[in-house]
## 1
Amino acid sequence: MQDRRGDRDQPALFGIGDLEPAGAPGASPAPSAPSGPASGPAGPMFRDSPAARRMLAVREIHAEPAAAASPRGREIVARFPGARVVPVDSHWRIPGLHGSEGNAERWVRVKTETLVLGERKTFTTRPNGRSADWIAPGPSNGCAMACAYCYVPRRKGYANPITVFTNIDALLAHLGRHIARLGPKPEPNQCDPEAWVYDIGENGDCSVDALVGDNTADLVRAFTHWPTAKASFATKFVNPDLLALDPRGRTRVRFSVMPAEDARLLDVRTTPVAERIAAAADFLDAGYEVHFNLSPVVLRPGWRQAWADLLRHMDDVLPRRVKDQAAAEVILLTHNRELHDVNLRWHPRAEEVLWRPEEQQPKRSENGAVNVRYRTGVKGEAVRGVRDLVAAHAPWLRIRYAF
Ligand code: SF4
C-alpha cells in the first residue's frame, strides 16, 4: 500500500526549483536535473545538458597514452572536444596536479576543469563487512564534487579530480571471476540477506562518473547478469541518466544525507539534500534498491535538532514503497590533520565545525593513516543519540550499522 501522505508531499524530481547557495567560496551546488522525464540512449541525456557541463567543464585531460587510445578513452575524449589532452606517464602523481600545494586555492576549479585517464594496473577486491561484503576495485578515483571532509583527496593529494580507469573490461572480468569463485552467499548478514554486496564506488562518486563516461553503466548492467551479487555505491549527486539503465534490483544506490545546513557548508558542489531524498522514489521505480547513508554525522551545537528535522522530513516525504525497502548506515565524522590544513586555505568556515580537537582523538585507519575521530565517550553517546532519533522520527529506517 502506498503511503498517501508521502506520495502527496514528495515533489517530482524533475521539477525542482532553484538551488540554495553552497557554503564555500567560488563553489556552486550541483546543477538540478532539467524539467521533463529523463531520457535514455534514445533521447538527449542529462550529461549532455548545459547543467551537467557546469559540474564538469573539462578543459584539460591528462591521459596515459594507452588509456587515451582505448575505446573508453576515445569516447571520453570525444565528449569534451574543447579539452586539451596532455600525455602523462602515469595517472599517479601528475606534476602540478597531485600533491601540488598551489591547488588548494584552485580546489574547485581543478575538480571542474580537469580529468585524468589511466589504466588500472592491479585488481584487488577487499573484504569489508560493514558497508558492503566486498570493496571492489573502483572504476575511478577522485571526484568532481568537493565535500570538505572527503577522504578521497588524501589518496592522491590535494584537489584530486576524477581519474577514470579506461580498462573497464578488465575490471568486469576480475569481478566476474571473484563472484564465480565465491558462489552463492551461504547465510544472510546485515549487508544483504541473499547477495554478496560489492561497493563499486569507494574512491569517488559513480553518479558523477556517469557524466564522464559509461563505466558506471557498464557496472550496473554487468551486475544484472550476476544473480549472487549486488553492486552498491554511495552518492551525493542525482544523475537522472542512471534511471535509464535497468538495474533490475542488482544495484543499491545509497543516497548520503545530512541536515541541510550542514550540507550547505560541507557538501560543496553536491545535489542539495532535499533533492537526493526526492529522487529516492524515481530510483526505486527504475529498478534500484535505495538505501541512505546518514553520514557523516558532524557533532556541533544543535546537531540533534537538525538530524531530528531531517529524519522527520524523510518520514514526511518518502513514499511507503521506499520506506519498506530502505536501510541506513550511520557514520560519524572522521577527519585528518593534513586535510584540515588544506581546508583552512580554501574553505576555513568548514573547519569551524569539522575540527574540534577537544572532542576528537587520533585513530589509525586501515591504510595506516592517522585520522581523528570523536573521543570514545563522545562518539558512543552520539551513536546512541542518532539511533534514538531514527527510532523516534523514522522508525521504518532499519540501521544496518552505526559507528
Ligand atoms: S561526493 Fe564523496 S567522493 Fe565526492 S567529494 Fe564528496 S565525499 Fe568525496
## 2
Amino acid sequence: MDNVAVFFQLKEYDSLCRENDSLKKQKSDLIDRLKNRQSELHTAQEQAQTLKERLRDLDRELAEFDRVLSQRLAEASKQEVEEKALGVLIEQQKIEELLEEKKTFLVGFEKTVAEITQESNESIQDLDRKLHHLATRRELLFASFPSDWQGMLERVQAKNLSLGNFTKILEGKCALCRYKLSLEVQSEIDQQLKLKACAGCSRIFLPYQVVSGSRT
Ligand SMILES: [Zn+2]
C-alpha cells in the first residue's frame, strides 16, 4: 500500500475516534437526563409520602381531641379544644387537596418516566452497538498501519488535543500552532510523504494530497 493510501486511512481513523467521542458523549448525556427524571420522580413520591404521614398524624390528633371532648370539661377548656380541633380540620383539608394534586401529577409523571426509561435504554443499547462496531473498525485500521505510524498516533492521541490529532502545512507553518517548518521538512511531508509530527504541537501532518482529497 502506498503512503497516500495509508494517510487516507489515518484520516479515517481520526474520524472514527471523533465519532467514538461523540457517541460516548451522547450516551452519557442520555444517562444523565434519565437519572435527573428518575430523581425528580423519587422526590415527588417522597413528597406524597410525607403528606400521607402528616394526614395520619392529624387523624391521631383529631381522635385525641374527640376523646378529650367526650369527657366533662369546663366550658372554657372545651372551647379551647374545639378551636384547636377546628385548626386541625382545616389543615387536614388543605393537605388532602395537596395530596390529591400530587397523586394526579404522579400518575402522569410515573407513566412519562417509564416511557423515557424504556426509550433511553433502547437508545443506550443502540449506542453501545455502534460503539462496539466503531471499536472493531478502529482496531482493524490501527493494526493495518506501519508500526512507526502506530507509535506516533498513540503519542498524539495521549495528548487529547482539542482540535484533533492532525494538521497541515499552511504558508510554511503548522496550520494549527503556527510552528515554522524548514523547506526540507515541508518537502518531506508534501513530496516524499513521510510521516512527521509537528515539533510545536505534536499533531501529525497530513500531506497536501490527503488534505485536498486528491491522489496523484
Ligand atoms: Zn503544530
